[in-house]
Specification:
heterodimer, A: 366 residues, 6-stranded parallel sheet, 13 helices, 14 strands, elongated, B: alpha+beta, two-stranded antiparallel sheet, 9 strands, 18% strand
Chain lengths: 366, 244
């Protein structure tokens, strides 16, 4: 409780006590005597008596036939007027896959946006576990949050939990990737991101060469990036895909994928990785092997931007903006809460290609 | 404020003056509050700082004062009432009707929230309005929904405060048990002392009920009554704590 036993952080202690008296009576389905209130709040009897008298004069309390106190009519009036003035969304739950820079940037943005709007947030990390994410959603429902934001570990697997959210009439906005069961989604236009990366690589190679593709976790965002990449490559008969591999959301998985590609013996002229972490892992292994192969990817992290500025081997990344994703998701979630009939929709935010000519003006998010 | 002159806690009265002015949007900036309440700006600054620290006052996205989250919660049951409001916004079955949320407080039905309808009523329900429970469909519906011992305890705990005895409790519980039901939905039907037909559906595991108030001048067909009680049951079910 704010202004509780530790004392108020302001110069009007009587207000802290008054709020405590109201809290105590609001939480208790029974009237309380002065002695009970004094015991509960641990304050001098004379002080509580003065507060109770003032609150009774203001009709926030009523004093009963036996001298006990209960909430008065003005407490109900004020509470109702406060509900009318407060934003429809008062609490937001956000669950995200892991403590990786992209998701942490989303968390920071959520806290900032929520603070400006006076919204309380409950932010939880799933440590890559879909079952943990299900637990988070169940917790949000039990706590009665007004809006759930989900950056899903995988695109499928949350349906049952999200159906329960729907039954509890809590809108759910998926962020970053379409998620089965969510009311709405705010995602980067990942197909566009893949196509931007592909066009850069094709230009760099002069439309001729052998490519390695490295996919990521099983989310629609990665599938869309790969699809967008392949659509563009299909227009270059001189470009062929000679090997494919899969990573996750970290550099180690990129290193493993790079070693797998090297061990295949295929001749590689260019590499597309579905995210920057994989690309950075690949670049590290190739550098260790003394190989200079241009790499393109998607995300826009600081380390990738530094490589682009230094001339490679990562030559470009289609940057998405986690801050914009989160701000848009919160806006849409608030709109869904206010107008529940808004229905299913997906918002695509355009990515921005960061390469040698644009990297200087780019401010990476993590 | 008249009650302030002899008070030992003038800050409480002044703070309530600020909350009133903000609630009614009469003043939502420090300068406007100082002018309206005839207090020095430094006093207003101290009070608004304290009210914000206690979350009784907040600011909107334009920096104007509004009532705070803690103020919304001082009457309790805030999450439940928010769920009722959310469901009411989603359903069209109760459109145009006055709908209230009523809490059973001893032998009183206390109105805690209202969504006003289009048809004038002889007595308009408003938050803070308390009604003898025999004239409150919501209060009776709550008592009837509780197990017998819990219903008795719920009423009796206010006996000393509201000044009634065991005989009155017995009478009320008997009245609640025999009150008229809607045959299809089980909603409690009561024509109150103003001739208003109140239809109440309790929110399980709580002391609240959702109530529709129908003007004495309105004639309601059986089909419409069934539709209304169905909509009401949906809203009260939506207000229940979701299963964990």
């Amino acid at each position: 409780m704010v202004g509780g036993a530790a004392g108020p952080a302001h110069r009007v202690p009587a207000l802290a006590r008054a709020a405590q008296v109201l809290d105590a009576l609001g939480a208790c389905d029974a009237p309380m005597t002065l002695a009970q209130l004094t015991d509960r709040l641990g304050a001098p009897k004379a002080s509580i008596l003065g507060i109770c008298r003032a609150l009774t004069e203001e009709r926030l309390l009523i004093r009963g036939a036996d001298g006990s106190y209960a909430l008065g009519p003005r407490a109900f009036e004020l509470a109702s007027m406060a509900r009318a003035q407060l934003p429809v969304v008062r609490t937001v739950g956000f669950t995200y896959p892991e403590n990786q820079a992209f998701f942490l940037a989303e968390c920071v943005q959520l806290v900032s946006d929520a603070h400006l709007r006076g919204i309380a947030v409950d932010v939880r990390c799933a440590e890559r576990s879909i079952s943990a994410q299900i637990d988070h959603i169940e917790r949000f429902i039990a706590d009665g949050v007004d809006l759930i934001l989900v950056e899903a570990v995988t695109s499928h697997g949350l349906e049952t939990a999200l159906n329960r959210a729907e039954k509890a009439r809590i809108p759910v906005v998926a962020i970053g990737t379409a998620t089965s069961g969510a009311s709405s989604a705010v995602v980067t236009d990942n197909a566009k991101a893949g196509s931007l990366a592909a066009a850069l690589l094709a230009r760099t190679l002069g439309g001729i060469g052998s490519l390695a593709l490295i996919d990521g976790t099983a989310i629609t965002a990665n599938a869309d990036r790969m699809s967008g990449f392949l659509d563009v490559i299909a227009g270059y008969p001189g470009l062929t895909v000679s090997t494919r591999s899969r990573g996750a959301l970290d550099q180690e998985s990129g290193q493993e994928a790079a070693r797998e590609i090297l061990s295949s013996g295929a001749s590689i002229d260019g590499i597309f990785a579905v995210n920057d972490q994989i690309a950075l892992g690949v670049a590290k292994v190739l550098a260790g092997e003394g190989k200079a192969v241009p790499i393109v990817s998607v995300d826009g992290v600081r380390e990738t931007a530094a490589q682009i500025l230094a001339g490679g081997p990562i030559i470009g990344t289609a940057a998405q903006d986690p801050r914009q994703l989160m701000s848009s998701a919160l806006e849409i979630g608030i709109a869904l809460s206010s107008s529940p009939g808004l229905g299913q929709n997906t918002v695509f935010l355009p990515p921005r290609l960061i390469e040698s000519t644009t990297v200087k003006g780019y401010e990476p998010w993590g | 404020m008249g009650v302030e002159a002899n008070s030992r806690t003038p800050a409480v009265h002044r703070a309530l003056g600020i909350l009133d002015a903000v609630a009614l949007k009469q003043a939502t900036t420090p300068a406007a509050l100082a002018g309206r309440l005839s207090l020095p700006k430094s006093s207003i600054a101290d009070l608004t700082t304290a009210l914000e620290a206690e979350r009784l006052l907040g600011k909107d996205s334009q920096g104007q004062f509004r009532l705070g989250f803690r103020t919304a919660g001082i009457s309790g049951d805030n999450a439940l009432i928010a769920r009722v409001a959310r469901k009411l916004a989603q359903t069209s079955l109760l459109d145009g009707h006055t709908v209230s949320v009523v809490k059973a407080v001893g032998l009183v039905g206390m109105c805690v929230e209202v969504r006003m309808g289009q048809h004038p009523l002889p007595l308009t329900p408003r938050p803070g309005l308390s009604t003898p429970i025999l004239d409150s469909a919501g209060g009776l519906a709550v008592l009837r929904s509780l197990p017998a011992a819990a219903a008795r305890d719920s009423a009796a705990v206010y006996a000393g405060h509201q000044g009634f005895g065991g005989l009155e409790v017995d009478k009320v519980l008997e009245h609640a048990a025999t009150a008229k039901n809607h045959p299809a939905t089980g909603a409690l039907l009561l024509t109150d002392s103003h001739g208003v037909l109140q239809i109440a559906s309790p929110v399980r595991h709580s002391k609240l009920a959702v109530v529709v108030h129908l003007s004495p001048t309105r004639r309601v067909s059986d089909a419409e009554l069934e539709e209304l009680t169905g909509g009401l049951s949906e809203v009260s079910a939506a207000a229940e704590d979701p299963p964990g």
